[in-house]
Amino acid sequence: MLEIRDLRVKLEEEDKQILKGVNLTVEAGKVHAIMGPNGSGKSTLSYVLSGKEGYEVTGGSATLDGDDLLELEPEERAALGLFLAFQYPVEIPGVGNMTFLRTAVNAQRKARGEEEMSSTEFLKVIRAKAKELKIDAEMLKRPVNVGFSGGEKKRNEILQMAMLEPRMCVLDETDSGLDVDAMKLVADGVNALRNEGRGFLVITHYQRLLDHIKPDVVHIMADGRIVKSGGPELALEVENNGYADILAEVA
Amino acid sequence: MTAILKSKQAAAATRLDAMSAPKSANWATPARAAALARVERMGLPSRRDEYWKFTRPDTLTQADAPHAAVFVHDEAPVFDSFDRLKIVFVDGVFDAAASDDLALESVEISRLADAADISWAGDIYGKLEERGQDPVERPLAALNTAFASDGVLIRVTKTPSKPVSLIYRHESDSSDATLHHVVKVEAGASLTLLENGPAAARFNKCLEARVADGAELHHVRAQGRDHERRAVTHMFVELGRESVFKSFTLTVNGRLTRNECIIEFTGDNATAHVAGAALGDGDFVHDDTVFITHDAVNCESRQVFKKVLRNGATGVFQGKILVKPDAQKTDGYQKSQSLLLDGDSQFLAKPELEIYADDVACSHGSTTGAIDEDALFYLRARGVPQDVATDLMTLAFLAEAVEEVEDAALADEITGRLEGWLVRHRD
Ligand SMILES: Nc1ncnc2c1ncn2[C@@H]1O[C@H](COP(=O)(O)OP(=O)(O)OP(=O)(O)O)[C@@H](O)[C@H]1O
Ligand SMILES: [Mg+2]
What we know:
Number of strands of chain B: 19
Helix content of chain B: 10-25%
Structural class of chain B: alpha/beta
Largest sheet of chain A: 6 strands, mixed
Low-confidence stretches of chain B: none
Largest interface: A-B, 32 and 23 residues
Bound molecules: adenosine-5'-triphosphate, magnesium ion
Mean pLDDT of chain A: 93
Number of helices of chain A: 10
Strand order of the largest sheet of chain B: 2-1-5-7-9-11-13-15-17-19
Number of helices of chain B: 8
Oligomer: heterodimer
Shape of chain A: globular
Strand content of chain B: 35-45%
Strand order of the largest sheet of chain A: 6-9-10-3-11-12
Distance between the termini of chain A: 30 Å
Strand content of chain A: 25-35%
Number of domains of chain B: 1
Mean pLDDT of chain B: 95
Radius of gyration of chain B: 21 Å
């Protein structure tokens, strides 16, 4: 589903190479996790996949079911079914959460040539999904992420994912800042979306999330490359021993 | 006498020579003569005046109105669907056929051009304007008092069932219109006054309003979409005890718009909110100049002005809150912000506080900025196309000003117009 080949990325404004040849394939129906030290390039990978400005691709490719992602505008990638749950969700004063989400859902539908969702149907669906994530109706009325706690922002990301029903979900540290119960809620939200047509790439520092969302494959990223891949046991190894052993081994 | 003043007076003399005094009712004659003398003494505004340092007054002061093409479009006029008493002026000339009968329960309505001898307007006409000349001179308002060809005199004794709506049509490329309205809202009554339309190639409009104790005046205005029109408008408002004045102005397009608002609190516990949303694309100068004088206890004033500028448009804000020594417990708030959609546009702001009382809460803030790129990316990453995302954020920016419109249906009407403009002006 998601194929990343030898992806090389530098900062546009500076002569700094961040991704130095990333290779990664996420198959439909699978959950891949990426772990790795701070600054190794995990968020950069997620941003480049979703089309954020400020990065220059110097080599390699990234495709979603054969479509070249790197050629497309961010909104086109989203309409193709790519979703990024942001490590730091952005506050947008003055734009209501509901307006925002309905605009997004219908813009994607329109781009795909599907019928738009009526406001009654939208309301019904979002209320049900918000309830599952324990997001109260009051929060939906507020401006996007404004005044939300860290955990509320993360749950709001999962709500957006549930509403948009993407095919390929990239979650960047969605577990950070969550209390134990919220982590369970978020994991349940993710698990509810798991099916054979959908792929997940879960970026995390902690084994705990992976207890709830069982990954098929775990990758270790260091200094702009995937340096090691393995099964769920790799995450346990990181949890117990840190990165030193793994990095020494591949050096 | 300084050389600058001499040249301003000379300019006034030349201009006045070329003008002919309109027919005037007896009651207004002394006020008009006094205003004429003020113009002769003050001279016309010059670009060297401190008060005009951001906005060039020459096209407003020159003898002939600069040519302004009539803008033809198929959008329904603002407030079209609202039940209201319509009073129509075409290029500054009253259009009886297009207007409703000037009759509304609890409201006396007459026209400046034919009011024979009404007494109440004589207490206001030119009087509030004259007071408003101190401490800053506003010669174009005095010129208006002296030469206004027409206008509406509205006295409200009880709250009527619907708004009074002044509609200004523009049909001639070279029209030069001068209108002067007087509004008096008597104790305990409330009036909603609507104004819309481009008015003329050049429009000089003055509104003097006295809002009595416990009375309310709600004013919502949409200045017409004609790209080439020019306008200078003044509102002089005197507020009595526990009275309320709320004014909102929507301005889209127009070569030059200078809106001055001069408010004086004369009774305690009164409230005044003035707000505006302006959208300019290209050759556009929009200037909000506000002067609020607190001369009573426990009054609240609030200014919220937002401007969206692109393709070389210019926004100006000059706002002053003056708190006199006895105006304790004054609550003064002033916010002026611009959103620059490109690097060519500019916002020039001069916010001022002058406070002589000690127990007051006054704040002001003026900011200028671009669209937040992180928020834009966030919206796009969710599938919202760039132009739609930009419009969403632009509307969000303007919303705070529109929220000052108390009536929800009128606020929706304004928001609809803003959306329409944004969609039309997508690249
Ligand atoms: N826009 C930018 N400007 C400057 N440096 C950047 C920018 N984006 C990324 N970097 C740098 O690139 C490197 C990789 O950053 P990235 O955010 O991708 O790391 P990460 O693996 O997500 O880290 P963390 O685990 O802390 O979230 C870091 O050194 C970071 O400082
Ligand atoms: Mg990161």
